[in-house]
Amino acid sequence: MQDMNHFDAPRVGILPAGERNRISDVAGVRVGHTTLEQGDIQTGVTAIHPHNGDIFLEKAPAAVTIINGFGKSIGLVQLRELGVIETPIALTNTFSVGEIATAQLKLATAAHTEIGRSWPTLNPLVLECHDGYLNDIQAFAVRQSHYEQAVASAGADFAQGAVGAGRGMSCFRLKGGIGSASRLAVWEDGARHTVGALVLANFGRLPSLVVGGVPVGRMLASEQAAPQASGMLAEQDKGSIIIVLATDASLDTRQLGRLSRRAAAGLARTGSFYGHGSGDIALAFSTAYRIPFQADAAMPSVTTLHETRMDALFEATAEATEQAIINALWAAITVSGRDGHIRTAIHELLPDWREVLAQQSAKG
């Protein structure tokens, strides 16, 4: 079985990556998983901490882009209105959104007993994809305790692939799941900032898959190398992807919204066209400053990045998103789940992927 902490995947783009090539290359960002993997239950939850402090008392500036709105997430309305995150970002399956939102409320009110009393209420933030092909989603297997475990286990080094919320996810009708990457934006004056991406990849038609400009999906579909390949040409692009972006660049909410929109460029490079039934959401936050909860606390004096310098961050966002999707595919292992359904890992179908990509790239 492949080690989901250590895997080889195609390298896309031209920008340098951070030390870990994960979203956690943005200092303070941590990720934790709880994975449920037994028989028909193939699901889980993933939690992303935007910084090391108390996220309710020190909110993170953020913005969200709805690329295609076929989704059931919670918390996006207030996020769009106020431009802040005040809980860890939770990822899970579609039917577990309510359970995880309740878990977020309970953890927050245990830490701050005046939430919802003399203090304002809390805005839970839970994003989802539908994993019902591999997972018996009607079993409602994800519990509040699983979210608590994911939050408690979060760290800078975390597994990718068929773990956490990604356990039951499919991508291009192959095994998908959690993927992460980072890219450095570097300016001529020597300034640099990091953009990290984490995706919950659960979208796409097999023939549409493109890896580094090579139409890998068409090759697999034409050879019918995977059991899922038959009939894929006629299938819709239905599924979802959640893209979470972190940066240490000082950006306001409007600029973070601009950044989040560029995730769509990286998503498109892999072969997605944001189909009718695909819920595609990109959320971006900055760790450069924090917004205090208390009204009498001093607001941060923030100097934001000049608009003319945003292009470097846009490029880093597109590359990090594309790489995170590729990493989700290559980190995944083959999973058998509900009613014997199987999603096959791409590295099993293309064990010679290095030679294939090199040959196709040489053909131009």
Question: Top keywords for this entry?
Answer:
P1 family peptidase; L-amino peptidase D-ALA esterase/amidase; four-stranded mixed β-sheet; 364 residues; aminopeptidase activity; ArgJ-like_dom_sf; Peptidase_S58_DmpA; 9 helices
Explain what the structure shows.
The protein has 364 residues and is an alpha+beta fold. Strand 5, helix 2 and strand 6 (126-129) form a beta-alpha-beta unit. The chain has one domain: L-amino peptidase D-ALA esterase/amidase (4-Layer Sandwich). The radius of gyration is 20 Å and the shape is globular. Strands 3, 4, 9, 10, 11, 12 and 13 form a seven-stranded mixed beta sheet that branches. A four-stranded mixed beta sheet has the order 1-2-5-6. It has nine helices and 15 strands. 25% of the residues lie in helices and 25% in strands.
Number of strands: 15
Helix count?
A: 9
Percentage of residues in strands? 15-25%
In total, the number of domains comes to: 1
Measured distance between first and last alpha carbons: 34 Å
Please write the string of helix (H) and strand (E) elements.
Answer: EEEHEEHEHEEEEHEHHEEHEEHH
Might you state the CATH topology name?
L-amino peptidase D-ALA esterase/amidase
Helix content: 25-40%
Radius of gyration: 20 Å
The CATH first-level class comes to Alpha Beta
List the helices and strands and how they pair.
Layout: E1 30-38, E2 41-49, E3 58-69, H1 76-82, E4 84-85, E5 89-93, H2 97-111, E6 126-129, H3 144-152, E7 170-171, E8 174-175, E9 177-186, E10 192-202, H4 216-223, E11 239-247, H5 253-261, H6 263-269, E12 278-286, E13 291-292, H7 310-331, E14 335-336, E15 342-343, H8 346-349, H9 353-362
Parallel strand pairs: 5-6, 11-12
Antiparallel strand pairs: 1-2, 2-5, 3-4, 3-12, 3-13, 7-8, 9-10, 10-11, 14-15
Helix pairs in contact: 2-3, 6-7
